[in-house]
């Protein structure tokens, strides 16, 4: 048995148990011992009750905007460093700690009936990040989790187009076909780009990881095609899922903008506010060879997804692209 000053003792401990050196922020309100030593000015109400986890390019920004237009639902403040998303549970922001995260949310205001606003956060990179489900569950075990799915082939192409438009030098040097056919012999950066492009669309494996932590009753899967063509139905379903009050009729909040070809917010002066030019881009149709390669790539993932969605009984009905792909 040895005794050492605390920091020296910690060094010894972490050299013996390196896996414990990764912090996991748990919810102070779930543990009385933590609550006792937590500053009285802090509140677990300053944490989100709903996470929109992505993946990227499935309509997450549209859902974010629609949620934000609800009078009782509020998003986090913007993070200028990460294109507005907080991205706490993935990457280095996690090491900035709980106070850093909580400062992105307003101090909650109770209305006259005592019911608080519902805070939510949307970070589209959460969906496929290895560590996020475990970390999110440790801090937000009662949160509702929302994922959006579209045909993974279209998602991959939309992501590639997004990277190109964003000025990514690699995406601008290689065609989509070159990206999806990158092999072990290809340059490392190209292989990495391919993995970033394709991996999020391997939906079943990522969803199973979330379900390792969260019960299926807390997970809502949205069909991105319906979010795009009929967001009113989706927003009504989502409101029932999170049991928000008041229940708002989204026919008063969004409408189809013929020029943009998408649903947009109705503003107080009756004008439409659509998402920016980066959302709902127009680009050339996908190369048919690349499309066939991707369909083959996603086939086993889609079979697994089909089984998973049947097991979860959502979304109802199953996405049209999935049924078409499997037939
Ligand atoms: P494209 O730009 O490839 O068409 P995300 O916000 O997750 O990055 O997703 C972007 C995608 O959202 C767009 O991809 C577009 O197809 C889709 N989308 C769905 N509803 C939309 C809406 N109301 N306005 C604009 N884009 C929408």
Automatic annotation (TrEMBL):
Compartments it resides in: Golgi apparatus membrane
Key word Glycoprotein present: yes
Broad class of where this protein is predominantly found: Golgi
The keyword NADP appears for this protein: no
Alphabetic keyword roster: Disulfide bond, Glycoprotein, Golgi apparatus, Hydrolase, Membrane, Multifunctional enzyme, Signal-anchor, Transferase, Transmembrane, Transmembrane helix
Active site positions, chain numbering: 57
GO biological processes: heparan sulfate proteoglycan biosynthetic process; heparin proteoglycan biosynthetic process
GO-annotated cellular components: Golgi membrane
Gene Ontology terms for molecular function: deacetylase activity; heparan sulfate N-sulfotransferase activity; hydrolase activity
Sequence positions that bind 3'-phosphoadenylyl sulfate: 158, 263, 279-283
Ranges of residues in domain Sulfotransferase: 48-298
Disulphides: 264-274
Entry's family note: Belongs to the sulfotransferase 1 family. NDST subfamily.
Name of the molecule in the record: [heparan sulfate]-glucosamine N-sulfotransferase
Classification lineage: Eukaryota, Metazoa, Ecdysozoa, Tardigrada, Eutardigrada
Residues of the whole record sequence present: 581 to 907 of 907
């Amino acid at each position: 048995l040895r005794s050492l000053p605390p920091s020296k003792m910690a060094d010894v401990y972490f050299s013996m148990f390196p896996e414990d050196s990764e912090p996991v922020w748990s919810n102070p309100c779930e543990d009385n011992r933590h609550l006792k030593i937590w500053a009285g000015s802090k509140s677990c109400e300053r944490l989100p009750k709903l996470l929109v986890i992505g993946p990227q390019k499935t309509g997450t920004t549209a859902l974010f905007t629609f949620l934000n237009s609800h009078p009782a639902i509020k998003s986090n403040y913007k993070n200028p460093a990460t294109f507005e998303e907080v991205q706490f549970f993935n990457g280095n922001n996690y090491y900035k700690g709980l106070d850093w995260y909580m400062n992105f949310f307003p101090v909650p205001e109770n209305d006259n009936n005592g019911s608080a606003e519902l805070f939510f956060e949307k970070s589209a990179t959460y969906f496929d990040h290895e560590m996020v489900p475990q970390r999110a569950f440790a801090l937000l075990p009662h949160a509702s989790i929302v994922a959006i799915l579209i045909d993974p082939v279209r998602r991959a192409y939309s992501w590639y187009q997004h990277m190109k438009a964003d000025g990514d030098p690699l995406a601008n040097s290689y065609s989509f076909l070159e990206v999806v056919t990158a092999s072990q012999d290809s340059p490392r950066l190209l292989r990495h780009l391919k993995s970033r492009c394709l991996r999020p669309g391997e939906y079943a494996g990522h969803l199973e990881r979330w379900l390792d932590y969260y019960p299926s009753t807390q997970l809502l899967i949205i069909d991105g095609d319906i979010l795009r063509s009929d967001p009113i139905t989706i927003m009504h379903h989502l409101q029932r899922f999170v049991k928000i009050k008041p229940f708002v009729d989204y026919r008063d909040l969004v409408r189809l903008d013929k020029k943009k070809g998408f649903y947009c917010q109705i503003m107080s002066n009756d004008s439409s506010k659509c998402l920016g030019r980066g959302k709902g881009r127009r680009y050339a149709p996908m190369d048919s060879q690349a499309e066939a390669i991707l369909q083959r790539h996603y086939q086993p993932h889609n079979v697994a997804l089909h089984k998973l969605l049947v097991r979860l009984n959502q979304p109802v009905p199953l996405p049209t692209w999935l049924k078409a792909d499997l037939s």
